[in-house]
Write a structure and sequence with these properties.
The complex is a heterodimer of chains A (231) and B (658).
Chain A: E1 8-13, H1 17-28, E2 33-39, H2 42-52, E3 56-60, H3 68-78, E4 83-88, H4 93-101, E5 106-109, H5 114-125, H6 133-143, H7 153-157, H8 161-170, H9 176-183, H10 187-201, H11 206-216, H12 221-225
Parallel strand pairs in A: 1-2, 1-3, 3-4, 4-5
Helix pairs in contact in A: 2-3, 3-4, 8-10, 9-10
Chain B: H1 2-9, H2 11-27, H3 37-45, H4 49-56, H5 58-90, H6 95-162, H7 166-181, E1 185-192, E2 197-204, H8 208-213, E3 216-218, H9 222-230, E4 234-236, H10 247-253, E5 257-265, E6 268-277, H11 285-331, E7 335-340, E8 345-348, H12 350-356, H13 360-364, H14 374-389, E9 394-402, E10 408-420, E11 423-433, H15 435-486, H16 492-519, H17 522-527, H18 529-544, E12 547-553, H19 561-582, E13 586-594, E14 597-604, H20 624-635, E15 639-644, E16 650-657
Parallel strand pairs in B: 12-13
Antiparallel strand pairs in B: 1-2, 1-6, 2-3, 4-5, 5-6, 7-8, 7-11, 9-10, 10-11, 13-14, 14-16, 15-16
Helix pairs in contact in B: 2-5, 4-6, 5-6, 6-7, 6-11, 7-11, 15-16, 18-19, 19-20
Classes of the chains: A alpha/beta (231), B alpha+beta (658).
């Protein structure tokens, strides 16, 4: 994200040292990744985040003192530009929803492989979605306002037409490449639109942007469902 | 003239005429100048011959008087005077004497006629008198006989009215019949309605042997049997000519005539009365009437005695059951008291005295409401109103009983209505002290609370252990295997092995995760009740197809762990029931956050059921899951309501304070 940093700086928070070590080892193998700190509980994660301002915070949910979701919420409140990724052993919908609502950019399962985790972190950095399209739709349905409330166009007004278009396509769970094909532009341009939109919306990931859009009403469920028949 | 014709036919008339002619001839014989032997005779007797001749005329006069009464006498006297007068007037030396004598004869003749007539009349009168007297005597006898009969009937009637003992009725009846009719033997048979047999009930004047032989006979069999069958009296002049089972015995006994009448009651034959003679005898109709009357009386007596015995049996049964009730009442372990509809206590048992501390006398002067605490009086009033409305035969309730010393006892009370003459007259209350039981129940509840808590704690501990140790170790293991497998140095065949190993470790991890989630959903502790319930709902929707939704009313907030856990477990149980039994297509969970409490409502559109009136009876209805819910809600001081009907779905509401 930061143009001057060569490596992506990562903070890993998990109360289990053995797991923490495992992930650190996986991440350290990547040349462009750098684990800047490890935290054993939520509070420590908060403290270290404030100190080190990493690019990415990997949080376990079930941690002593402060759980991962609550920690994510607080980090995002203070540092909206820091990307939070949840790593959990559980695949409960409620954990996924709560994590995304708290501002997490991705929800990864601990049963995922090391390279999957790495790929996901990279994708998030590039504004890609890391959720399976079907999960994306489920998540979007969950957060879509049940009653039609007047759209809060304030933040949307700042977005360009192209940026809105890119986000609308993203609600269907399309990858950057698919969006590029759809709009007949390059992947890099798509990425640039996302980055610009993220900055305008003060978010750090695609899922955050989509949630904002749904919550504020400038993205609608119709956009999410329009493609569901194809799956 | 008929009188003349009759007189002519009588020989006395001719004798009379002969006498008159003969005497007249003698009277005038002197004209023949031949004095007769008669004249001589009179002369020898010293009497004048005229006198004698004239005296002779008295003979026909007497005869006529005898034959024809005074009329005949007077007539003949006149004829005699006519016969005498010519001699006295025409040809007499002593004319005056003659006329005097003639007159005397005339007078005597008249007198004789008269006296004879009087005599005859007197005789006739006497004969009439005698006849009348005889008739009177006969009448008297009849009256006496009737009196005797009446007396006998009276005696029987009075005995029958005085006693209901059948044996005494029979004894006095046979005695009475024997005394009045003077028969040699009397027997009474009674029909046994069950066997249709005549049984010898009483007898007089027969040998034991005969009595034994004639003790039983079928209706329709023999003479008595015939009477029992027809209901008509029967007289047999000579029983030895009758073909009957008892003939030989009767012959030996020397019985000749028998008269049998039925014993009737309300037109029904209930037995027979049989009198017998050793000689041939014809019975008077009065005898038959008497026997019939006695027979009717005995019949009535038999019926009365039967009714009496029945009544006595019923009365005895009643007495026994009354006594049994009394014993039950008095010795019952539970306190029992009765009060009338105005509330005045009318009876109480020993246990009631023991429980309340009042003496029986004190209790019986108390109003029933004095025994109950104020709030319990309302409960009792409702129960009694329900009973009077006829809602229930009996009802139960829990009330506080106020003892004499002012202390209170918690009692379970069972009330019912006691009827008198088909109208509610009393309330009967049965009460047993449940203070102890309640304490025990409280203890049990506390214990249960502890057990539930410990169980949940244990589950949580195991779930956490699984999560913290097993799962995390497996996660690390998986990462390492994966890392190893990804290494470029590993030969392909080893990589394959490692891959398998990774899959296995991953499966174990998933299993452990599932186990941990089952024991205690991680979402509940970390995210709270609502997200956990939403997770549960989506799982149910996914696996059962029952569209399950969670709605939240009011401001969503975290609740005490215990409350959240109980609500989660309740929803788990309810949804499990809905899934397994209800055949529902939708289920709805509403959580209503109110100040200080949360109301959770579960609704389904399933087949419903008949919930017990009292929720504490749930286990008896086999609703163990619901019973567990009820128990857990109560442990937290909450309330549970179940509203269901077959075919109408189910609504369960739990209200918990926090």
């Amino acid at each position: 994200m930061g143009e001057d940093s060569k490596k992506t700086r990562i903070l890993v928070a998990d109360d289990h040292a053995i797991v923490r070590e495992g992930y650190c080892k996986v991440l350290e193998q990547e040349p462009d990744f750098e684990v800047v700190a490890e935290a054993a509980d939520g509070e420590e994660a908060l403290k270290l985040t404030a100190e080190l301002k990493p690019d990415i915070v990997l949080l376990d949910i079930l941690m002593p003192k402060l759980n991962g979701i609550e920690a994510a919420r607080r980090i995002k409140e203070k540092y909206p530009n820091i990307t939070v990724i949840i790593l959990s052993a559980y695949d409960d919908d409620q954990f996924i929803y709560s994590s995304l609502e708290a501002g997490a950019a991705a929800y990864l399962l601990k049963s995922s492989r090391g390279r999957e985790v790495v790929a996901s972190i990279r994708a998030v950095c590039e504004g890609e979605s890391v959720l399976h399209p079907s999960i994306t739709r489920k998540v979007m349905s969950h957060f879509a306002p049940t009653s039609s409330k007047p759209a809060q166009q304030e933040s949307a007004a700042r977005l360009s037409e192209r940026e809105k278009e890119v986000l609308t396509l993203a609600t269907r769970g399309l990858s950057n490449k698919d969006i590029a094909n759809e709009l007949s532009i390059s992947v890099r341009t798509v990425q640039a639109h996302f980055t610009s939109a993220f900055n305008k919306l003060q978010v750090s990931s695609r899922s955050e942007a989509l949630l904002r859009g749904l919550k504020e009403g400038w993205l609608s469920l119709a956009d999410v469902n329009s493609k569901s028949k194809d799956d | 003239m008929s009188f003349l014709a009759k007189a002519v036919r009588r020989p006395g008339t001719w004798l009379l005429i002969l006498l008159l002619v003969g005497i007249t001839f003698l009277h005038y014989a002197y004209l023949l100048k031949h004095p007769t032997f008669l004249a001589d005779l009179t002369a020898n007797l010293g009497l004048t011959r005229y006198t004698v001749e004239r005296v002779l005329y008295l003979l026909p006069i007497i005869l006529a008087s005898l034959l024809f009464g005074w009329r005949g006498g007077v007539t003949v006297t006149v004829i005699a005077v006519c016969c005498m007068l010519p001699r006295g007037i025409l040809n007499a030396p002593h004319r005056v004497d003659d006329l005097v004598e003639t007159s005397i004869i005339f007078i005597i003749g008249i007198l004789v006629s008269y006296s004879l007539e009087s005599l005859k009349k007197e005789r006739e009168r006497r004969a009439q008198l005698e006849t009348a007297q005889r008739e009177l005597q006969v009448q008297l006898h009849v009256i006496e006989e009737n009196e005797k009969r009446l007396a006998a009937l009276n005696r029987t009637a009075s005995i029958i009215s005085q006693t209901l003992e059948l044996d005494r009725v029979f004894d006095s009846a046979v005695d009475c019949v024997r005394d009045v009719t003077g028969v040699d033997a009397v027997r009474i048979y009674v029909i046994d309605s069950a066997t249709r047999e005549l049984t010898l009930a009483a007898y007089r004047g027969i040998s034991e042997e005969f009595a034994a032989g004639a003790s039983r006979m079928k209706v329709g069999e023999g003479l008595n049997g015939k009477v029992a069958e027809t209901g008509e009296p029967l007289f047999v002049k000579d029983v030895s000519e009758e073909d009957r089972p008892l003939r030989l015995l009767a012959d030996k006994e020397g019985i000749r005539s028998e008269l049998i009448v039925p014993l009737l009651s309300k037109g029904k034959v209930v037995g027979t009365l049989c009198v017998a003679m050793h000689t041939e005898r014809t019975f008077l109709s009065e005898d038959v009437d008497l026997l019939t009357a006695v027979g009717n009386q005995i019949g009535v007596a038999v019926e009365n005695a039967r009714l009496y015995q029945q009544e006595r049996k019923v009365a005895e049964q009643l007495r026994v059951s009354e006594q049994r009730y009394r014993e039950l009442f008095e010795n019952a372990h539970d306190a029992i008291w009765l009060h009338d509809l105005e509330g005045n206590i009318v009876a109480a048992n020993r246990a009631c005295v023991r429980l309340t501390g009042y003496s029986l006398e004190e209790l019986c002067s108390l109003k029933a409401t004095r025994l109950l605490s104020e709030d319990s009086q309302n409960i009792a009033r409702d129960m009694q109103a329900g009973l009077l409305k006829g809602d229930d035969v009996g009802c139960f309730g829990e009330v506080k009983l106020v003892k004499k010393d002012g202390t209170e006892a918690l009692v379970q009370i069972a009330s019912s209505l006691v009827y008198s003459a088909d109208k509610p007259a009393f309330f009967q209350h049965l009460a047993w002290d449940i203070t102890e039981a309640r304490n025990m129940q409280e203890n049990l509840r506390f214990l249960l609370h502890q057990i539930t808590r410990v169980q949940e704690e244990e589950r949580k501990r195991i779930a956490r252990e699984l999560h913290d140790e097993t799962i995390q170790t497996l996660v690390a293991l998986c990462l390492r295997i994966d890392d190893l497998a990804s290494s470029a140095k590993v030969p392909p065949e080893v990589r394959l092995r490692l891959e398998e190993l990774y899959q296995q470790a991953n499966t174990i991890m998933m299993e452990a995760r599932r186990l941990s989630q089952d024991l205690r959903p991680a979402a509940l502790d970390s995210l709270g009740l609502v997200p956990a319930l939403e997770g549960l709902a989506s799982q149910i929707t996914r696996y059962s197809g029952i569209v399950t939704e969670v709605n939240v009313v009011g401001e969503k907030r975290r609740l005490p762990d215990e409350v959240e856990l109980v609500l989660f477990r309740i929803v788990q149980e309810v949804l499990r029931n809905v899934w397994k039994h209800a055949e529902a297509t939708t289920a709805n969970i509403t959580l209503e956050f109110v100040d200080g409490s949360i109301v959770a409502t579960f609704k389904d559109n399933g087949k419903g059921f008949e919930p017990p009136k009292v929720l504490s009876n749930l286990p008896r209805y086999g609703k163990l899951g619901l019973a567990g819910i009820q128990e857990r809600v109560q442990l937290l001081g909450g309330t549970l309501a179940i509203n269901s009907e077959p075919g109408k779905g189910t609504i369960i509401t739990a209200k918990l304070p926090f």
